[in-house]
Amino acid sequence: MHISQKCSVALHCLIFINEYSSDVNVTSSLLAKSTGCNPVIIRSILSGLRKAGIISTQSGVGNAQLAKKPEDITLYDIYNALEPDGLRNLFGIHASPASTCPVGKNIHTVLQMPYDIIQKDLMASLTSIRLDSIIKQFHDVLS
Amino acid sequence: MHISQKCSVALHCLIFINEYSSDVNVTSSLLAKSTGCNPVIIRSILSGLRKAGIISTQSGVGNAQLAKKPEDITLYDIYNALEPDGLRNLFGIHASPASTCPVGKNIHTVLQMPYDIIQKDLMASLTSIRLDSIIKQFHDVLS
DNA sequence: ACCTCCTGTAAATTTTAATATTACACCTAT
DNA sequence: ATAGGTGTAATATTAAAATTTACAGGAGGT
Fold it and tell me: Which member of A2, A73, A75, B95 has the lowest number of beta carbons within 10 Å of its beta carbon?
């Protein structure tokens, strides 16, 4: 099990943008170098963040900027921008249980209750973390 | 992102065992039919559950039984039996950020704080759900 | 003692999802 | 016009999950 690394790369990009976008033109190839990922991956991540209103970019120019204050950006916002309804499919479920068995017939319905709870809790947990605290952590580590 | 379907299959098996093990000899091929999975998958799941002390099985016979009361089995116990330190690697992290960049150099350390929090919260959430409530849910759906 | 059905694993294969690459039309500043 | 960038689709590569095949051994019936 794993959550794709998009989220980590996005946080990397957001920290980078927050730190340096006032000094240099932040482009996807610059972020690609810093993260070690492919520029196309970066562009698709930036595209998701842009559509979610988290950053702004200038077509043909680059110049990525935060579109919100770091304290108004939650980890959930970021995660959701990259994997819409990723939480809905948190747990894999076996697709073809026997419909002739009482358990098999109802397992999907039964699992919904516990999985909904987990999903809701995880969403709250992700929402509780904001970009500003991660940026603060970055400054702490630097010094 | 996804958590492998092992967890769902395990819950299916545990409900099945709880309901029917007093009446029939629950074997891996019976569970394979009910879940729609391969018997080998079932055996590897049962093997994990057995090592975690959640069920007992008889080599060469089958006869899977719950080894604990359903109220003493949490979803975390089950998850952990199947994917030891799955939570530790919840989030994928890009492997080769540029060490020449202040962000790239420290990103792993910085991400540890938020990811630890999420992991801890998720663990608590998984622990809060016990097998008895899922079995109750099954009975509710049946009637 | 032997046969049958089962377990428990290992190893190889298939399938599926994630990541990377290639390609290209279009934007913008110089 | 051109150089360097974006945005996105399509394809390939890689890595992980799930299945299948294979086989040595346990337990119980006859």
Answer: B95
CA B13 to chain centre: 11
CATH 3.40.50.300 is right for the domain spanning B6-89+130-142: no
Q: How many CB atoms lie within 10 A of CB B38?
A: 12
- Name the residue among B8, B107, B141 with its Cβ closest to that of A94: B8
Chain A partners within 8 Å of B70 (Cβ): none
Output the pTM of the full model. Answer: 0.92
Q: CATH number for the A6-142 domain, one of 3.20.20.80, 3.20.20.70, 3.40.47.10, 1.10.10.10?
A: 1.10.10.10
Asked if B89 CB < 7 A from strand D, the reply is: no
Say whether B96 and A129 touch across the interface (CB within 8 A).
Answer: no
A29 touches strand C (CB under 7 A): no
Every domain of chain B and the residues it spans: 6-89+130-142
- Which of A83, A101, A136 would best serve as a mutation to test chain B binding (most B beta carbons within 10 A)? A101
| Chain A partners within 8 Å of B34 (Cβ) | 97-98, 101, 103-104
Cα separation, A64 vs A30, in Å, equals 11
pLDDT in tens, chain A (143 residues): 456 789 999 999 999 999 999 999 999 999 999 999 999 999 999 999 999 999 999 988 989 999 999 999 999 999 999 988 788 778 888 888 999 999 999 999 999 999 999 999 999 999 999 999 999 999 999 99
- Spatial neighbors of A111 by CB under 8 A, at least 6 apart, are A91, A93, B8, B11, B134
